[in-house]
Amino acid sequence: MNEAERQRYVSIIRDSSEPLETLPQPPLPAEFEARLIPGKEQSLRGISTVLFDVYGTLFSSSAGDIGVSSGYVRGSLDDLALRYTEDCTGEELKAYFRNAVLQAHERLFSETPYPEVRVDELWKAFPRKADTIGYRELALRYELAVNPVYPMAGARDCLRDLSAAGITLGIISNAQFYTPLLFEAFFGSLPEAMGFDPDLLVYSYREGEAKPAPSLFNKALDVLRSRGQDPGSVLYIGNDMLNDIYGAASAGFKTVLFAGDPRSLRLREGNRLIRNTMPDGVVRRLEDLLFLADRPRQ
């Protein structure tokens, strides 16, 4: 995308977004309560790199994740269809996207159990798009209609303070082309300008696989090892026990489960892959990570 497109997409995100309803913190099983921070910081001392999930961790989202499989908001999708398609309903938009994702996954399952799509390519093939809108803008507007997002409380301050303390920041996340633009829309800068290491920005749409595919975590691991960094000095934080905690722990990273938003918390109880996996810590607020910067909590 060129600069004019990027600025347009950032403006669309800003104009289409508003704070999501604050919900009570979700209850936690006893074994997770026992790992709450503050209280379990000692096992996480010596961390020099923090890697973040995006959806459900840094940004609250209605779906709790990126909207590839999210629900249907009738009013907003019908409005989108009326304005930007040729005689199409919101229900038909939803059906097209769902089927396009399923077909793409079926093609890719022979290559990986965790296939990822590029949603802009799916919308590029949509035959009923109006001439007044580009396919990437349609992809973005669809995502904002089905999966509104807003920064998680304390996200900006957490990132600022960790970066200021010399902590290396990175991202490993299920993502699409518009995901980095969320940072510019809400925080004023792309991740690279906020202190994130450009070599540690791992987005699923670029890799062709989604979390918890080992390739995403290993890509960051290879970069860190090339710098002489031990994976035990790396912390990954996310909201999903399978996609985040299991995936990161398999790479040797320390892990923290973010459990501050009931929309996004995924304990995956009963999933056999994670039955022997527990996070090293659990936080209810992103500010609770600031012990890593040796800064007192307010």
From TrEMBL:
Keyword entries, A-Z: Hydrolase
A Pfam family it matches: Hydrolase
Keyword Hydrolase included in the entry's annotation: yes
Gene Ontology MF: a single term: hydrolase activity
Gene3D superfamilies (UniProt xref): HAD superfamily/HAD-like
Protein name: HAD family hydrolase
Phylogenetic classification of the source organism: Bacteria, Pseudomonadati, Spirochaetota, Spirochaetia, Spirochaetales
